[in-house]
Amino acid sequence: MPVKEIIPDLVFGPFTRTVLALYAGASGDHNPIHIDSDFARDAGQPDVFAQGMLSFGVLARVVTEWAGQDRLRRFGVRFASMVHVHDTVTCHGHVVERIDHEGRLCLRVAVEAKTQNGHIALSGEAIVEDRDALR
Amino acid sequence: MSGKGNEVGDRTLSRGIFDRSIRGTTTSPVIVRVERDRIRFLSQVLGIKDPVHHEVAAARAAGHRDLLAPPSFPMVIEALAHDERARVGLPNMLELLRCDLRYLLHGGEAYVYTGPIFAGDDIEFAAEFLDFQDKKQGTLEIADVALRFSHAERGLLVTGRRTLIHRLR
């Protein structure tokens, strides 16, 4: 059964060095590969790249700003490619189907984040409680 | 996990970096306090503007007991738990796995939300090291980790699954 729901896209970026540093501080993940260009180059990377969980948190906004966090039951992603410093991502979500999730009527939402070059950086899905089921 | 024919063979031949002897073990639980400012700071960096993450009055007006932690906040709790472990001389998860940060990649992350996390909560964190695998002719090795975030009265609030990857030459 098709589900007609429009989920607005969300654009985030550019992922400046400042954003990466602030996310390191905010999250408590101080892995230098994301904030120290010298470390990144010594490790064979062209430069620092964004923390996966930074993009995860941004992509989750596509769902929570549309449905409200109270309805979110599951959110999971695969990190398909790196988000490099200076990249901008466009986050997209669309409802795939209605499903029964642990006895509750839910929506399965496919989500992905693409860089300005069209590379898929993250892809995954959210399970969101159906609004009708909450009435 | 999919059973590709060469994986069993790869496992015995592996020259990986992860300490695979910890397979099946769980970290001793650590309890940390969720501070309002950590919820505000993470929300601000992620561009989350909903006042339930920033203003206590707005959170209470929306029926929450205090500021609501956003969906990726468990990562902050985990980092706080690692800091707490370091204070008492215990290794953190990446040290237990013997990760090499030069070659470490984050393969995937998924959370199941069974209850909300609020500022002021004392949350218990534990990680279980589920499995290790070799992929792509031994050029990648994968660690599969389960995460648990629970509250003494409200029980299990979030469960997580994480895939960590080492790029091997």
Descriptive account of the structure:
By secondary structure, chain A is an alpha+beta fold. Chain A has a single domain (10-134), classed as Hotdog Thioesterase (Thiol Ester Dehydrase, Chain A). Chain A has four helices and five strands; from the N terminus they run E-H-H-H-E-E-E-E-H. Chain A has helices spanning 17-27, 37-42, 52-67, 131-134; strands at 10-12, 72-79, 89-101, 104-115, 120-129. Chain A has a five-stranded antiparallel beta sheet. In chain A, a hairpin with a 2-residue loop joins strand 3 and strand 4 (104-115). The longest helix of chain A is centred in the middle third of the chain and has 16 residues, at 52-67. Chain A is elongated and about 50 Å long. Chain B has a single domain, classed as Thiol Ester Dehydrase, Chain A (Roll), CATH 3.10.129. In chain B, 25% of the residues lie in helices and 31% in strands. Chain B has helices at 7-13, 36-46, 56-61, 74-87, 93-97; strands at 30-33, 104-113, 122-135, 140-151, 155-167. A five-stranded antiparallel beta sheet of chain B has the order 1-3-4-5-2. At the A-B interface, helix 1, helix 3 and strand 2 of A face helix 2, helix 4 and strand 2 of B. Strand 2 of chain A pairs antiparallel with strand 2 of chain B.
